[in-house]
Every structure is written in structure tokens, then in C-alpha cells.
Design brief:
157 residues; mainly alpha; Arc Repressor Mutant, subunit A; 3 domains; elongated
Length: 157
């Protein structure tokens, strides 16, 4: 019982710094040397007190990464990396959509060479892929930028 109290104290201490998923908290407590059974009891206790909620946490992560300009694939990857279950990830991603205007604005702001040459186009395309946007969405935004600049060759990436 004493070790379970220590595990609870350690869990509250960790959660006071920043929110975590159940998996992240479990991993941290196990790394600190607490037994699996103690960790599970602490997680159940914190869940019953609504101090640990994977759905709420996932929603916070989605909002954070979306506000930072990341695309669906990056957000999905981040949720998975944080140990959230497939059901929660799918539920959170149902309403997530890449806004074509947002993609366009991000890309337009990142163009360094006007009019962009092939190297610049590839740099922008690759950057957006790393941010987790789908290639079709990127191509659509690139075509829109080309049209705005009066280019008729499009963005052949």
C-alpha cells in the first residue's frame, strides 16, 4: 500500500507539469521503478477522479498541432506516438480536415523565390509533406499559387 501511495504521488507530480496519456504516464511510472499492478491501480484511480482522460488529452493534442499548421498525417502520427488507442485516434480525426485555404496560406508565406523555380517548388512541396499534409492537397494549393502568379506550366513535382 505504501508503494501505491508513492506511485500516486509520483503520478500527480508528473501530471502537474503537463497532461499525459495513460500510456505515457504508465511508461514514466514503470521507468521510475513502480510495479505494473501499482501503476494500473493508480491510473484507474486517476481516471475515476477525471484527472486522466485520454479522449480529452487527444483533443488537446489535435487542437495544438492543427493550430501550429500541421496536417492530418502529422497529427495522426503524434496521437499514435503518445500511445493513444486506435479508436480514440479515429474518433478525433473524424472531424479533422485540412483546410485548403490554410495550406495555401502556409505555402504562400514560405515561398522565398518569386516566381518560384523548380528547386523552390520542390522545397515547398517537401516541407508540406513533412508537416503531414497529403500530396493531393499540396498539389491543389500549388496549382492555385501557380494560377495566382500567371504560370501555366503548373507545379510538376
Amino acid at each position: 500500500m505504501k508503494n501505491e501511495k508513492n506511485a500516486l504521488k509520483a503520478a500527480v507530480d508528473v501530471l502537474s507539469r503537463r497532461p499525459l496519456s495513460e500510456k505515457e504516464l504508465s511508461d514514466k511510472l514503470l521507468k521510475k521503478g513502480f510495479e505494473e499492478e501499482e501503476v494500473q491501480k493508480v491510473i484507474e484511480h486517476l481516471r475515476s477522479l477525471a484527472l486522466l482522460d485520454d479522449e480529452e488529452y487527444a483533443g488537446m493534442v489535435v487542437r495544438h498541432y492543427a493550430a501550429m499548421g500541421y496536417g492530418e498525417m502529422k497529427v495522426r502520427s503524434e496521437l499514435y506516438r503518445r500511445g493513444l488507442g486506435r479508436d480514440i485516434i479515429e474518433c478525433m480525426m473524424q472531424d479533422f480536415s485540412s483546410d485548403p485555404d490554410k495550406i495555401y496560406e502556409i505555402m504562400r508565406a514560405k515561398i522565398k523565390v518569386l516566381p518560384p523555380d523548380a528547386k523552390e517548388k520542390k522545397r515547398i512541396f517537401d516541407m508540406m509533406l513533412r508537416k503531414g499534409y497529403m500530396s493531393d492537397d499540396i498539389r491543389d494549393a500549388l496549382s492555385r499559387i501557380s494560377a495566382d502568379m500567371g504560370e501555366d506550366d503548373g507545379w510538376q513535382i
